[in-house]
């Protein structure tokens, strides 16, 4: 454990990061720094969001195939939200097998997303890769044995170090080029041996995440963009075969073991070195839709329940009410001043200019009952913990104990990162439990996976998904059997949108205020907090040529 404190400079002035990398999509962060600490922040999505307009007039059954192409990472989340929205408008329930298969797919998506996020997207905010060149592999192996039930050998770590030396010596640094950690940085605390272990697991995670994607393809047919969902259930009859279930189970167990034996120990190793980051990156309000339903359209049947926490109050959970969601555009590049409920939402672009501090983002600004809220793993785990969910309580208590932290310390960048790891462990167990229930249902003789119901001529529906990045909802209005209106309210609009009409900052804008900056030319501290939200800007913005139906190409100079 470390008692180091994040250094700060005496710098005063603006810092702009554009584009902010290691995320999905295009994001610009603008901050004002005063004597080494961030005084104000703006989160700027720099591509037009217009996917809703593309969907108008289409067959509601086709919507999922468009929305899951919002992003190359969150594909199943969007397909599920769109399908749930249509099913809500149709007023139907699903066969048990369909619910089990959908839950298994979502559970594996959580594991895939959290592994990739921790290692490939977020680890380099804490891990100095070049420091690993100075590590003693034998000492690193002893450290690995002390923290992990599946330790790395000195030979394995020496091999990784050799590969790293060759890589750095080649000058072809790729994702490491011009990074904050090259050449040393005062905000990096891990010793060389810890950095070597983390680098070895960074490389291992590149291979391991493929197993999670393959497991999803067992039922989904392919990944990304699975092709098994229909309104009323699923179409993967082959997934009822014993051999296919066994294939899924084998892949799942490999991923589960990596989470428990590698990811969690690495999280504790990094978290123990950066405990000062419990003082930075916090927000105030948290929201989750819950997830893993017993009955698809019943939010209260979900294994993780919906709810909100206001003002960091750990004494109670606020009940979730869908009618309290609205989207603001007052500080976005859209026409209008008035907040609208998603069923009445409009997407009419009105660009001003880059650098505008009044209207400054292509994202809208969702609010719940007037509150800016954070959504994602920290919200999921906080609400479940306070509601007494036993798996969450045991996993979160164990992590807090290992790091010698209090529940209130979770309101931070480190807390958000730790909650994601806890959620991965919880999901690893949940997928196993769901799999056993699915196997038992199939063994009972139930082979039904879909209910065929026609699309209504008129209606509206909403599909709520707690995706790995947070609360996702799709809102559909149907007239004359076609889509009359469609709105996507995604995790990154909640977390990384602009201010609302009431001037309230979004979650990431609030989280950045007060953060120290040690080196304004290499502001890794900004990256730590922004990356802890796992931004997916592609989900919140989308661009397409209405005449040619081709996406545009952009070059950042």
Notable traits:
single chain; 557 residues; three-stranded antiparallel β-sheet; 12 strands
Task: Summarize the model shown.
With about 550 residues, the protein is an alpha+beta fold.
Structure commentary:
The protein is an alpha+beta fold and 557 residues long. The longest helix has 32 residues, at 242-273. Residues 542-557 have low confidence and may be disordered. The chain has a three-stranded antiparallel β-sheet with strand order 1-2-3. The chain is built from 15 helices and twelve strands.
SSE run: EEEHHHHHHHEEHEEEEHHHEEEHHHH
Overall geometric form = globular
Strands of the largest sheet, in order across it?
1-2-3
Please count the beta strands (DSSP E, at least 2 residues each): 12
Question: What are the SSEs and their pairings?
Answer:
Elements (H helix, E strand, L loop, with lengths): L12 E5 L9 E8 L2 E9 L5 H5 L7 H5 L7 H16 L5 H27 L14 H11 L6 H17 L21 H29 L8 E2 L2 E2 L7 H32 L12 E3 L18 E3 L15 E4 L36 E4 L8 H10 L3 H14 L9 H31 L14 E10 L2 E10 L2 E8 L1 H6 L10 H6 L11 H9 L4 H4 L17
Antiparallel strand pairs: 1-2, 2-3, 4-5, 6-7, 8-9, 10-11, 11-12
């Amino acid at each position: 454990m470390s008692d180091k404190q994040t250094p700060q400079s005496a710098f005063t002035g603006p810092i702009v990061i554009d584009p902010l990398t290691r995320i999905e999509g295009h994001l610009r962060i603008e901050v004002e720094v005063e004597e080494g600490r961030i005084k104000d922040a703006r989160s700027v999505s720099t591509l037009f969001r217009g996917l809703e307009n593309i969907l108008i007039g289409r067959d509601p059954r086709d919507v999922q195939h468009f929305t899951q192409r919002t992003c190359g990472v969150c594909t199943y989340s969007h397909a599920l939200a769109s399908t749930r929205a249509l099913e809500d408008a149709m007023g139907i329930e699903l066969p048990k097998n369909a619910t089990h298969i959908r839950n298994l797919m979502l559970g594996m998506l959580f594991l895939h997303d959290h592994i990739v996020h921790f290692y490939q997207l977020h680890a380099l905010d804490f891990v100095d890769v070049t420091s690993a060149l100075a590590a003693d592999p034998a000492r690193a192996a002893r450290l690995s044995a002390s923290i992990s039930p599946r330790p790395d050998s000195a030979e394995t770590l020496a091999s990784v170090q050799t590969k790293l030396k060759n890589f750095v010596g080649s000058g072809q640094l790729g994702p490491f080029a011009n990074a904050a950690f090259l050449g040393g940085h005062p905000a990096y605390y891990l010793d060389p041996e810890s950095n070597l272990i983390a680098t070895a697991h960074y490389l291992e995670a590149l291979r391991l995440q493929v197993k999670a994607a393959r497991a999803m393809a067992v039922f989904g047919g392919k990944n990304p963009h699975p092709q098994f969902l229909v309104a009323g259930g699923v179409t993967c009859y082959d997934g009822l075969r014993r051999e296919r279930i066994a294939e899924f189970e084998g892949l799942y167990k490999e991923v589960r073991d990596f989470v428990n034996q590698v990811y969690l120990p690495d999280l504790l190793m990094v978290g123990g070195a950066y405990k000062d980051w419990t003082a930075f990156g916090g927000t105030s309000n948290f929201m989750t839709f819950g997830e893993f339903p017993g009955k698809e359209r019943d939010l209260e049947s979900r294994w993780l329940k919906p709810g909100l926490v206001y003002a960091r109050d750990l004494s109670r959970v606020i009940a979730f009410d869908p009618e309290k969601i609205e989207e603001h555009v007052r500080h976005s590049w859209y026409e209008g001043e008035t907040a609208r409920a998603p069923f009445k939402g409009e997407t009419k672009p009105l660009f001003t200019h880059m650098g505008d501090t009044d209207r400054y983002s292509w994202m809208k600004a969702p609010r719940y009952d007037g509150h800016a809220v954070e959504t994602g793993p920290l919200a999921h785990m906080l609400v479940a913990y306070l509601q007494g969910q036993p798996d969450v309580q045991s996993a979160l208590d164990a992590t807090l104990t290992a790091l010698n932290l209090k529940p209130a310390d979770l309101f931070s960048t480190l807390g958000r990162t730790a909650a994601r790891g806890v959620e991965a462990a919880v999901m690893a167990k949940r997928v196993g439990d769901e799999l056993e229930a699915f196997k038992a249902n199939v063994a009972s003789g139930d082979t039904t996976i879909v209910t065929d119901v026609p699309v209504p001529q008129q209606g509206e529906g909403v599909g709520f998904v707690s995706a790995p990045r947070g609360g996702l909802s799709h809102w559909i209005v149907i007239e004359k059997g076609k889509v009359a209106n469609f709105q996507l309210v995604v995790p990154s609009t909640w977390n990384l949108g602009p201010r609302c009409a009431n001037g309230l900052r979004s979650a990431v804008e609030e989280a950045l205020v007060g953060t120290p900056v040690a080196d304004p030319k290499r502001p890794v501290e900004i990256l730590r907090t922004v990356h802890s939200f796992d931004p997916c800007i592609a989900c919140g913005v989308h661009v397409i040529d209405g005449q040619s139906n081709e996406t545009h190409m952009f070059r950042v100079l």
